[in-house]
From TrEMBL:
<dbReference type="GO" id="GO:0005886">
    <property type="term" value="C:plasma membrane"/>
</dbReference>
<keyword id="KW-0808">Transferase</keyword>
<keyword id="KW-0067">ATP-binding</keyword>
<feature type="transmembrane region" description="Helical">
    <location>
        <begin position="171"/>
        <end position="194"/>
    </location>
</feature>
<dbReference type="InterPro" id="IPR036097">
    <property type="entry name" value="HisK_dim/P_sf"/>
</dbReference>
<keyword id="KW-0175">Coiled coil</keyword>
<protein>
    <recommendedName>
        <fullName>histidine kinase</fullName>
        <ecNumber>2.7.13.3</ecNumber>
    </recommendedName>
</protein>
<dbReference type="Pfam" id="PF00512">
    <property type="entry name" value="HisKA"/>
</dbReference>
<dbReference type="InterPro" id="IPR004358">
    <property type="entry name" value="Sig_transdc_His_kin-like_C"/>
</dbReference>
<dbReference type="InterPro" id="IPR003661">
    <property type="entry name" value="HisK_dim/P_dom"/>
</dbReference>
<dbReference type="GO" id="GO:0005524">
    <property type="term" value="F:ATP binding"/>
</dbReference>
<keyword id="KW-1003">Cell membrane</keyword>
<feature type="coiled-coil region">
    <location>
        <begin position="229"/>
        <end position="263"/>
    </location>
</feature>
<keyword id="KW-0547">Nucleotide-binding</keyword>
<keyword id="KW-0597">Phosphoprotein</keyword>
<dbReference type="Pfam" id="PF02518">
    <property type="entry name" value="HATPase_c"/>
</dbReference>
<keyword id="KW-0472">Membrane</keyword>
Length: 475
């Protein structure tokens, strides 16, 4: 059963219960009021009859024509009955033993002894009874004469009250049925409108499940469903971003494998070729020397590439151990390591440290800056210089490596930390590069909570910048 049908079902159940209970209470109250009115009428009639009987009896006593004989009660009863002509009043006059007067055409339908048996003088009482599918209320009252107690019993047909109640119940059933149908139609429309956003949200989830991660729920109501749709869109965006990141990561891995295979194939092909040349017997000494140098050069490049790949693997597996690093000593050691290689290419490395401290893994961070300087060296030519400096800002300590080399195109800046990416592959390979240095550097910086910033212009040079939190210097 759908949520809409559940809402409709339970609402209709509540409405039907409300109509049923309220109708029962109202009709029962109306019936009770009608019965109370009938009781009041029959009691009033009883009092009226007693008054008429006493009046006739007093008149006869004053005329010395009443002695309490049975035929005299018949006469009084007829006189009172005559005075009530045109009404539906039916009554009986009796003593404790027998009926003294009763209308022959409309005799009492109940045993009047049930009413008069325990009736106290001056009191009245009534009973309800049925006879031949008719409903009656009978009342009894008493009066005294010559030390004797007499009773007046009258009855009233109240079948119309029961008939009216049945008609009201039937009418109410029809009315309730019509109202329930109307409510069902109205509630169906209302629940359809209210649950429409849920159905749209369900369709959206179905499209996302099919792989359409760009789909969003277009629900703008300012209620719980609107909030749910908003949260759902946030979740869908997060899922899409995660999927995109996974796809991008998968693409990078595939590209990494392809590039790695290519980078291995190129030098290995040359190594195999030169090895075959060396095995030949007709090579000159100069040709043999050239082949050996190329094999050595490509072997060194393969060794560097394998070591950097191994470092990247270890970096993903291990947690870093941080230490306080004194910047001047740190930069001097980097200059000692990277300077000779730059000078061999006719490039001057200028080191300008600041007196400050940072926190990190010195060995890994040294790898970062050596790779940055090495990239600057590969982009520079004989006679140019590389500036390796640091300075203090309000937020921390900044390290910069600046060169005046070939520069990096703006559209390629975001690719420089990808494995095997090289702006100028021929220049990088000539200088022993494999495109892994900055990728490794980016991973190390990520472990330190830092990031590599690059500014570059083609033909003007490149600035690579990294900022670390500053540590308080020890006194």
């Amino acid at each position: 059963m759908s949520f809409r049908m559940k809402v409709l079902f339970w609402n209709m159940l509540l409405i039907a219960a409300a109509f049923g209970i309220s109708g029962y209470l109202l009709m029962n109250r109306s019936f009770q009021i009608s019965m109370d009115l009938e009781v009041q009428h029959v009691m009033s009639e009883n009092q009226l009859i007693i008054a008429g009987v006493e009046t006739e009896m007093v008149n006869r006593i004053l005329q010395n024509s009443f002695f309490g004989k049975e035929e005299e009660w018949q006469t009084i009863g007829n006189e009172v009955l005559e005075s009530l002509k045109g009404t539906d009043i039916c009554f009986q006059i009796r003593n404790e033993e027998q009926a003294l007067f009763e209308e022959q055409e409309r005799p009492m339908d109940t045993d009047t002894n049930l009413l008069t048996g325990d009736l106290e003088e001056g009191r009245k009482q009534y009973i309800f009874y049925t006879d031949a599918d008719r409903y009656y209320v009978a009342a009894a009252g008493s009066f005294s004469f010559s030390d004797h107690t007499y009773y007046v019993v009258n009855q009233r047909d109240i079948s119309s009250v029961y008939i009216e109640q049945e008609l009201q119940a039937q009418y109410y059933r029809y009315l309730t049925g019509a109202l329930l149908i109307l409510c069902a139609v109205v509630l169906s429309v209302i629940t359809g409108v209210l649950t429409a956003p849920i159905r749209r949200l369900k369709k959206t989830t179905g499209r996302i499940a099919e792989g359409n991660y760009r789909t969003r729920a277009r629900i703008h109501s300012k209620d719980e469903i609107g909030s749910l749709a908003k949260d759902f869109n946030v979740m869908a965006e997060a899922v899409e971003n995660n999927i995109n990141e996974l796809e991008e990561e998968n693409r990078r891995k595939e590209e990494f494998v392809a590039n790695f295979t290519h980078e291995l194939k190129t030098p290995l092909t040359s190594v195999i070729g030169y090895a075959e040349m060396l095995s030949a017997q007709d090579l000159t000494m100069e040709e043999r020397q050239k082949a050996a140098e190329y094999i050595f050069h490509e072997g060194v490049r393969l060794e560097n590439m394998s070591m950097k790949l191994f470092e990247m693997f270890l970096l993903n597996q291990e947690d870093l151990v941080m230490h306080r690093i004194y910047v001047p000593d740190f930069m001097e050691s980097i200059g000692d390591s990277a300077g000779p290689l730059a000078e061999a290419d006719g490039i001057k490395l200028i080191v300008q440290p600041v007196n400050a401290c940072i926190c990190g893994d010195g060995t890994l961070l040294k790898t970062v800056f050596i790779n940055m300087i090495d990239n600057a060296r590969k982009a520079s030519v004989d006679g140019q210089s590389i500036l390796f400096r640091s300075y203090v800002t309000e937020d921390g300590v900044v390290f910069e490596v600046k060169d005046h080399g070939c520069g990096i195109p703006a559209e390629d800046l975001h690719k420089i930390t990808e494995a095997f990416y090289m702006v100028d592959k021929s220049r990088s390979r000539q200088k022993g590069g494999a495109g892994l240095g900055l990728s490794l550097a980016a991973k190390i910086l990520e472990k330190h909570g830092a990031a590599l910033e690059v500014e570059s212009a083609v033909g003007e040079g490149t600035i690579m910048r990294v900022e670390f939190d500053r540590e308080q210097e020890e006194e």
